[in-house]
Design goal:
Blueprint (H helix, E strand, L loop, with lengths): L1 E10 L2 E11 L4 E5 L6 H8 L6 E4 L6 H7 E4 L11 H6 L10 H14 L15 H14 L4 E5 L7 H16 L3 E5 L3 H7 L2 E6 L2 E6 L1 H4 L2 H8 L1 E8 L2 E9 L3
Parallel strand pairs: 3-7, 3-8, 5-6, 6-7
Antiparallel strand pairs: 1-2, 1-4, 8-9, 10-11
Helix pairs in contact: 4-5
The structure holds adenosine-5'-triphosphate.
InterPro entries: AAA+_ATPase, ABC_transporter-like_ATP-bd, ABC_transporter-like_CS, P-loop_NTPase
GO molecular function, one term: ATP hydrolysis activity
Keywords: ATP-binding, Nucleotide-binding, Translocase, Transport
Length: about 250
């Protein structure tokens, strides 16, 4: 679904994404983690071809329409500019499909509203919703796009705990249905519980790529995140609790 080979993005002379090679397959929920400024947003924008880059991304060469049909992009900035209703805003996710799929489009919008628990919000003006409600609407718009791959930049930031879990479960369901998700997030507990694989970025490099239980080692948490944490695989699933910072 996505192949990156030596993807590099320069800011001035500085590579903020530095020779990253990775791939995404059907059924995966990839948690893109790393400290602030590690290059997570830049990696996703580079992968989409939204930034000048070296190396290759399988998405970057597609024309905008084909790319939008292949991958939905949920940016970190959540500005909603127009006073549209929630249903109208979610329906904007259908734009890459043109007018020939009107019936399927309505079904997709309804399904997306339902998945994000927004049925009772459909007629509300989106700009008059709370920050977390707006975030859920924008996730619904990305789902309505029905692109196999979703790239989401910190989609659960600012959501309440139930909405965070529900959103990660929506991503898992999208992957189980044959899609895939790459999502950046800072909650390593949710990353460990809901992601099939973690990509760890540090200073532009991808320093680890593997299942959460392998990646979140004491050494990596110290080296990359400068924290000590409690991490255990329990019968209820992985449990992660940051405990303290370490001297750098
Ligand atoms: N437009 C820009 N011009 C110059 N440098 C930039 C620009 N955008 C980002 N950077 C730098 O590139 C690096 C990576 O930024 P990026 O936004 O990809 O980090 P991130 O891992 O997504 O961080 P965060 O967790 O804080 O969102 C940072 O050092 C940042 O300061």
């Amino acid at each position: 679904m996505l192949e990156l080979a030596d993807l590099t993005v320069l800011r001035g002379a500085c590579p903020v994404v530095d020779r990253v090679s990775a791939s995404v397959r059907e059924g995966e929920v990839i948690g893109l983690i790393g400290p602030n400024g590690a290059g997570k947003t830049t990696l996703m924008r580079g992968a989409l071809g939204l930034l000048d880059h070296r190396g290759t991304s399988s998405l970057a060469g597609l024309d905008p329409l084909a790319r939008a049909r292949a991958a939905a992009w949920l940016p970190q900035a959540r500005e909603i500019a127009w006073g549209l209703s929630v249903a109208e805003l979610v329906a904007l996710g259908r734009l890459p499909h043109g007018r020939d799929q009107a019936a399927a489009g309505e079904a997709a919008v309804e399904a997306a509203l339902g998945r994000m628990g927004l049925e009772t919000y459909r007629d509300r003006i989106a700009t008059r919703l709370s920050g977390g409600e707006q975030a859920r609407v924008l996730i619904a718009r990305a789902l309505a796009q029905e692109s196999p791959l979703i790239l989401a930049d910190e989609p659960i930031a600012g959501l309440d705990p139930a909405a965070q879990i529900a959103t990660m479960e929506v991503f898992e369901a999208h992957a189980r249905a044959g899609g895939a998700v790459v999502t950046s997030l800072h909650d390593l507990g949710l990353a460990a519980r809901h992601c099939t694989r973690l990509w760890v970025m540090d200073r532009g490099r991808m320093v680890a790529d593997g299942p959460p239980g392998e990646v979140l080692s004491e050494a990596l948490l110290a080296e990359v995140f400068h924290i000590r944490a409690h991490f255990k695989i329990t019968p209820q699933g992985p449990v992660f609790q940051p405990l303290s910072t370490l001297d750098t």
